Amino acid sequence: MKKNTKGTIYGYIRVSTVAQRDDRQWIALTDFGIPKKCIFVDKQSGKDFDRPAYTKMMKRLGHGDTLVVKSLDRLGRNYDEMTRQLDIITKEKEAAIVVIDLPLLDTRNKYGDDLTAKLISNLVIQVFSYVAETERNMNHQRTMEGLAAARARGVTLGRKPMEKPAGFPAIHAQWEAGKVSARKAAEALGVSTPTFLKWANASTDA
């Protein structure tokens, strides 16, 4: 594992979904000099801290170690959670935190005496945690406003509904008569069973 003058340097990566790519975070951490075996990855939402890789890493993180993340919001999605985790890392674990996208948020002792370093680091943590949450809330608001504007223009949002195949009425009639199961009816139409049942129920209610 990569060692600094005081301990081990770990990296942490988080993406919100399995499908989301984490390439930029990997590049940033490996460019920082962290070996792959010291990088922990979670692919799920940051709305809470029930994250296997993060938990495993935090059990290893200790006095004199350093945790590196690409951006502050990798630790959480709101001000309280980010500041709580930063407190755990810097105070309870007595480790350092480095945020690559925020050069000022580097709690390794580069400001002079320990007291000054801690004071500056705490101020930086508070400010950037607040900024990160504010930016996320603004992005959410912009998204909601954009969706509302699109609806006002008559834009249809979301996935376009699948059209029923031409053979649906005949297959549906056989299903209603009990001649075929929903699964067989769906297979005959080339759709999933839930899709067939959705169409069938809609036709029955119409």
From TrEMBL:
One of its GO terms (biological process) is DNA integration. Pfam families: Resolvase. Residues 8-154 form the Resolvase/invertase-type recombinase catalytic domain. InterPro entries: Recombinase_CS (IPR006118), Resolv_N (IPR006119), Resolvase-like_N_sf (IPR036162), SSR_resolvase (IPR050639). The keyword DNA-binding applies. It comes from the Bacteria. PROSITE patterns: RECOMBINASES_1 (PS00397), RECOMBINASES_2 (PS00398), RECOMBINASES_3 (PS51736). The active site is at residue 16. Keywords: DNA integration, DNA recombination, DNA-binding. SUPFAM superfamilies: Resolvase-like (SSF53041). SMART domains: Resolvase. One of its GO terms (molecular function) is DNA binding. This is Site-specific DNA recombinase. It comes from Selenomonas ruminantium. The lineage of its organism: Bacteria, Bacillati, Bacillota, Negativicutes, Selenomonadales.
